[in-house]
Amino acid sequence: MTTIVPTDIVTVFTYSRGRHRAECSCGWTGRARWIQGSAVVDALRHSYDTGCREDWPLTVHCSGATTAGAPRRRLPWWVWTTTAGSIIGAALFYAPTARADAVDDYAATAYPVICEAIAEKPYVSTVVDVVDVIAVDTGSYEFAGAVLGVAVRDYCPWNRPPVERFIAVYLPTEPMAVA
Ligand SMILES: [Zn+2]
Hints:
- The protein is an alpha+beta fold.
- It is built from six helices and three strands, in the order E-E-H-E-H-H-H-H-H.
- The relative contact order is 0.17.
- It binds zinc ion.
- Zinc ion binds next to helix 1.
């Protein structure tokens, strides 16, 4: 049996044109940067200083940048990922307990998009991004985590590896620093 050691992961997020920032699951965030390369340097330096791992790909576009219309109420991802990790894990390995019908309905509708997004970029950062998009759509990160877990369990189990990595990363054995 292999033991997965949770490692914090640093990612460079592009929120909009000219707005980039390195953020790490350990709670650290870099400064907002006009130039993406500056945020990349921040991320590499943080990785070098702390041993937190670089995400791959290192740079991701936040889907919010392309979400037109409704104002987004995003939580910083390091606030919700631990909760989502446990919810996704529960949904992936067992049956979701809360609002099961609503979760199933949403997953049945959204699974093509969810499964394709993860298959296309099977990375932890994609899982983060997908949960975030669903949460903004539904108003609940817990609901979003359950939806993602059910979608992968029932519709695209071949996408489990990055989701399981997400869970391994965001269910640390020690309490996580919350910014
Ligand atoms: Zn870190």
